[in-house]
User: Fold these one by one.
Assistant:
Number 1:
Amino acid sequence: MTKFSELSLNPKVLKAIADAGYEEPTPIQEGAIPPALEGRDVLGIAQTGTGKTASFTLPMLSLLARGRARARMPRSLVLCPTRELAAQVAENFDTYSKYLKLNKALLIGGVSFKEQDAAIDKGVDVLICTPGRLLDHFERGKLILSDVKVMVVDEADRMLDMGFIPDIERIFGLTPFTRQTLFFSATMAPEIERITNTFLSNPARVEVARQATASETIEQGVAMFKGSRRDRADSEKRKLLRALIDSEGEKCTNAIIFCNRKIDVDVVAKSLKKYKYDAAPIHGDLDQSQRTRTLDQFRAGELRFLVASDVAARGLDVPAVSHVFNFDVPGHPEDYVHRIGRTGRAGREGTAITLCNPRDEKALAAVEALIQKEIPRLDNPLASSPSEDATSEAAQAPADETEKKPRRSRSRKSDKPKVDETRTEDTPAEATPEVKPDTHAAATPDTPDDKPREKSRGKRGGRGRSGGGGGGGDNRTVGMGDHMPTFIAQSFDERRDG
């Protein structure tokens, strides 16, 4: 078994590794560190949670141990897709560089430009950033990238999903052609393959696991779900989530709950807190200080449930996450691998449970095709199905509450007091008030005979109420057409009679 001491790393780096309690490298570290120390480009492909961060952190520190950075001219560059992943990489550098005199700077959104500019002006050996914030500083004239000797692209497939590929290509063009490139990804989409062929020079390809595979230490399961009604489906799904958490009992010490949409993250977190579950949300729309505070609480064990969007699917390294719950089946099958990779890390056992409704079955099939295995179906932990629970709740509702809605809806249709419409079958017919015929039209003195009056009454109560033509042939005015309003015919008739 290879040990870190056999990998030709800088002695001060080895001392920091020993202080951290590590002796043996993971397969991706064992394969990537030697060619990186030789100055070769490296293409690393490994599933999440296998130690990719140390695969480029350790050789970079050994290569940068000698030399000093100049103001605004970083010597190395690490690109990360999310703020959380960038912050985690920065923590790794702090851990392994504590015996080296190297400066680092973290450039991410949500932090003041002024503080970041001050760090850059001092000279930076290691610049860790997200692509957007890096280009912001470059366009403001605060960065010169012509002295970059080592460039790292971490989680490249996530960069592709988030639309950062054009920015990555631009950054490649701003750095020297002679730079060393370390390129890491969990999957290799065709677009990622194209970039590696374009910007990497004869890279050492290190692939320690089949692409897009889940760790064998993670116990997976899927709970099939179908709502009783469309308007109740969301609340019933949240009820099922709570039941699944309760069914795990003490085994569920903490968990990350993933949702596809940011709005669902907030709703699920609020629902869990309502039912006395210790939960908090994290997604891209939250303030950076709040995101950092929430993550720190989760890492410290002060928060049990972290409800997250895919911003937390990459880079969150919390070693002791016991469970991952997918409240939604992810739209991209690769995201499933990254989500469940938050548990079962560093050889630990973990559990990943997914909730799947009928409209997500196609996405679930895509996930199973990617990982090349069928995910076991779990029994519904509820005593009865959510639809049966909803039906029983509706049956137990007070009768007076269920009767109010139809009465209101009928009253909106018409202002007329039609008592027979609200009469139930148990009400005797004699109790229904009789609607008297319209006698007002019959008493109208200027109707010439009964025939046109009967026709008018057939059109809702005679000439005074009708908007149509006047009565029969005797009431028709020659030359004015068949659809002349009755009041006009009336005036002509009175003038003619006078």
Number 2:
Amino acid sequence: MRYFILYLVLISFHSFAQSSIVAGSSDEMTLRDLQLTGRYDENASFTSRPLWVNKDSLFQSEINQLAGKNRQKKYFNAYPVEWEQRFNSHSYWGRNDGPMMSVKGYQTLIRGGFSANSKYIDLQLIPEIYWTPEASVKTFSLGQSALRFHVNKFPIGLSLSTESIWWGPGVFNSLMMSNNAPGFEHISLHTRSPLKTWIGNFEFQLISGNLQSQSPLPFENQQLNVFSSVFGRDPQDRYFNAINLTYSPRFLRGLSLGMNRMFQRYGGDGMKGGSFMQDYIPVLSSIFKNSAGGLDEDARARDQLINLFMRYSFPKANTEIYGEFGWNDHKYNIRDLTLNPDHAAAYLVGMRKIVPLSNQRRVGIEFELTQLEPTNSDIARPAGNWYVHGQIWEGYTNQNQIIGGGVTPGDNTATFRVTYSDGLRKQSITVERYQHDPRFHGVEWTDIAMSLKHQQPWKERFLFVAGLDFVSRKGLYWQDNNDVINLQLSLKTYYYW
């Protein structure tokens, strides 16, 4: 309430406001398709999301159709009401779905709201209601809400937010940050548009926040085991600090290079003789452990994740390639990095190709490979699985769900999707091979899935997205002769004001 009052005090409407596009939404993918066909800003890197788009530009592209013809106003946007329902017949299936949990049976999510823009402040209020009878969970949260402070066209802003964040160029997964878990409370200093220099464009986002857990419920990164507390520390109080940096060189248009880095610690472990930077902005400290005090870094009882990424778009060829490579632990020094680069490492690579058929019709072909399984160096130098480390038992989670890609620790995926788009009508076929933690289990658990989706508008204000996923699960829960079939039915309903 105090934020809303402050907004009313400072309100001064201005035409340079921006609109936020929810991370992982179909609006976002439409913009990405349009860039590959030369109809959207070639400087957009799509490596730090949600995207902030000048509202006037929405009227100049196909994205306006998905945004709804009647909801775009000069200073006020009414976000569509979104109602998602999902049913798994046998066992959990699904990821990158925010509050939705890894449970079988029925679950549902409702979100909707509005945004209002002024000269100095943007207010975005999009709460979420989630319910599943399978785990007896009912939640109401601020969801994709944010309060942003800025000055006219100045490219840097400050935000207080609970919205989901997606870092990196991945489409189906992200090593570091995605919308797989519910959004968490955080403050963010970030670019609102690229910082343009004579050598190219720069983007950044620096965030600090608080991660939480639901102790009666299982954890995605612990093979769905239940956990309550460890060493007397409060699992509801985990401090999180992260940074995203992206550079797009002027001499290679379409190329984006960057780095993500994250730290987390229990709240009570701060301010124990350390500096302010070490306690609250460790992402700006030395990358190598020897420069950070050697074994003193381990004594700080905190966990780090770091990765490098790239995305290269070729609008003339309607194609993009991208990849990420990261580490679940510090490298001790440059020698450690060069001699054992695959220690505690994971990677993601992907490619997208758009085949334009007309102004509104196109075919999209996408392939993405994610490899979280530990490499052979783990035999001599154990590092455990990605998203699981020694200092923070809860690992890289919020509300027990993994903040990074929706695949769980040690898993590998290969995903292929073909999409046909005709304006608002879309059909897609997705085929995926999913290996569950093959390194640490003698019995293989492998899923082969096929997903069919259809998107259809109805009477101008409604949009429906229906899905059917057929999943053949061999060796379920790493048990011999435990082969099952899971069917997932899903339906999303959008109402545009």
